[in-house]
Amino acid sequence: MSDNVVWLTQEAYDRLQEEVAELQGPVREAIVARIAAARDEGDLKENGGYHAAREEQAKNEGRIAELQTKLRNAQVGTPKDDGVVEAGMVVTISCPGLPNEILVASREMMDVLGDTDLMVISPATPLGAALYQHSVGETVTYTAPNGKSFSVVIKDAKPFVG
């Protein structure tokens, strides 16, 4: 999977579109109004309100750009049910210290899942990369961030249905 491709359910995709609309509309307008009000106060060098509003504006614009990139690169829908691990799959694994079931997806899926025991891992993480494109029955090895290697048995891989 390309590092840029993000798998999302339709619900997650729609939620991200709504967030972009909110950030580009009411949130952006409120920030611009705060900047204008602070600018009217005079000396900008020592105007804490102005600098705080400009910082907030930069963060808002950064989040908009991030979300637009994710939406542009989104893969929406259900992956093939062929037992091969890819984004959008719930994978049952056997590995000490890890949950039995994980969802291979982006962090944006965590909000959609709500109250669930599924752990979400990105295909870009060490575990996600090790599992990616491997099939049910295979054993893969990955190196955790602490430098230790672990073997993981893929017991099952089914498309996520939310």
In short:
This protein is of the alpha/beta class.
Any overview of this molecule?
This protein has 162 residues and is of the alpha/beta class. The chain folds into two domains: 6-76, Helix Hairpins (Orthogonal Bundle), CATH 1.10.287; 89-159, Chitinase A, domain 3. It has four helices and seven strands; from the N terminus they run βααβββαβαββ. It has helices spanning 10-40, 48-72, 109-113, 126-131, and strands spanning 6-8, 74-76, 89-94, 101-104, 119-121, 139-143, 149-159. A five-stranded mixed β-sheet has the order 5-4-3-7-6. Strands 1-2 form a two-stranded parallel sheet. A hairpin with a 5-residue loop joins strand 6 (139-143) and strand 7. Helix 1 packs antiparallel against helix 2 (48-72).
Secondary-structure map:
Layout lengths: L5 E3 L1 H31 L7 H25 L1 E3 L12 E6 L6 E4 L4 H5 L5 E3 L4 H6 L7 E5 L5 E11 L3
Parallel strand pairs: 1-2, 4-5
Antiparallel strand pairs: 3-4, 3-7, 6-7
Helix pairs in contact: 1-2
CATH homologous superfamily label of the largest domain = Transcription elongation factor, GreA/GreB, N-terminal domain
Helix content: 40-55%
Measured by DSSP, the beta-strand proportion falls in 15-25%
Note the main sheet. 5 strands, mixed
Q: Any low-confidence stretches, pLDDT <50, length ≥5?
A: none
CATH architectural type of the largest domain: Orthogonal Bundle
Q: What is the radius of gyration computed over CA atoms, rounded to a whole number of angstroms?
A: 21 Å
Count of discrete alpha- or pi-helical segments spanning 4 or more residues: 4
Distance between the termini: 22 Å
Strands, count: 7
**What form results from the Cα inertia axes?**
elongated
- What is the number of domains? 2
Describe the strand arrangement of the main beta sheet, using strand numbers.
5-4-3-7-6
Tell me the name of the CATH class of the largest domain: Mainly Alpha
Instruction: Specify the structural class.
Output: alpha/beta
